[in-house]
User: Fold this.
Amino acid sequence: MTYSDQPTPLEARSSGPLTGKVRVPGDKSISHRALILGALAVGETRVSGLLEGEDVLNTAKAMRALGAKVERSGNFAWSVRGVGVAGFAPPEAPLDFGNSGTGCRLVMGAVAGCPITAIFDGDASLRGRPMRRVLDPLELMGAKVGAAKEGGRLPLTLNGARDPLPVLYRTPVASAQIKSAVLLAGLSAPGVTTVIETEASRDHTELMLKHFGAQIVSTREGSHGRKIALTGQPELHGADVVVPADPSSAAFPIVAALIVEGSDIVLSDIMTNPLRTGLFTTLREMGASIEESHARGDAGEPMAQFRVRASRLRGVEVPPERAPSMIDEYLVLAVAAAFAEGTTIMRGLQELRVKESDRLEATAAMLHPYGSPDRDVGAGDGACFRQAGEGGRYRLYRDQLSGFHPDDARPWGRIFMRAR
Ligand code: S3P
Assistant:
């Protein structure tokens, strides 16, 4: 029998209340980092709960191509034997990161600190995404970009630095990918590499570097920022990593449980790193019942069990400085906001435009069938206005999603999303 490589369409149906206990898959950010740091460490790194999705598997392949021994030892269990800091071997073929900006940008940083040449490539979406933001600091550190498409886009050739320089770099946007690329290159530089961010982005690289034995210090900078100083040329030693459940994946059953009357679900091991939990803060402000218990930690990352019960949500204003801590969750927040009473305003969303898709557009498109098409995407600062549950559209909404608040005559939420 032959299988088509076309993806199978998923079908969604309205349901009754959600109940039960679930552990969502492992965190994607942690999974990429466990493989990359494992490959740069000496000795064995054992990872459990790895997310075995395409993005992470492409990072695993890249680590193999760069000389690390990466093996799957059981369900979601992986073993990595690394080559040591600056020890990557030149890959024989281009490194293909598929759809993954995180895998690609982090590995660019790791390669930039090694005296090798590698070609980076990805799918059509990744080929369209900005890479200059990572290449700029890596060039300051001594890496050189060979052939590249306009604006430093993929496919591109990166020549790592023979003698990488430590730098002090201020990231132009709050991005853990830029920060992590600089820190990973800084591992091979003598002296201290410093990254300053005016708004703190997720700090998984810093926490995991510490777990693998690096000397790295993070201090507050201004009201929302961080200054991170990494001492170069450490000996990283292999370590055990338990990957917590991904809060970005948990966001979907959590919002589903909140909006379907009578729901009561439990999710285990959800990562509660405060730089990832902006959505949960926002949902609680909206009136969500999310109870945390069984707090524990592994490899520097906190996690907890969540109990989520259906709740009446109200619209809130989400401040721009919260954006880095929930950058992957605005789409699902928009679903919650559509079911909330009153208006939800989200600001500071410009980074959503340069993800694997333009997520501002995608959010508007997702809501379009369910509300009046009163929108203004791309105008001025890229404001996007949605209003759900108007006039005739309201009936359509109710009929399509029967089972959601069946007797509820409230007006549905209004959503206002601004790029800046
Ligand atoms: C990620 C950082 C974020 C996020 C991405 C994962 C990471 O991107 O959107 O899904 O693991 O470092 P930016 O750092 O570019 O905001």
Notes: The first strand starts at residue 19 and ends at 22. The chain has two domains: 9-25+244-419, 28-231. Residues 372-411 have pLDDT under 50 and may be disordered.
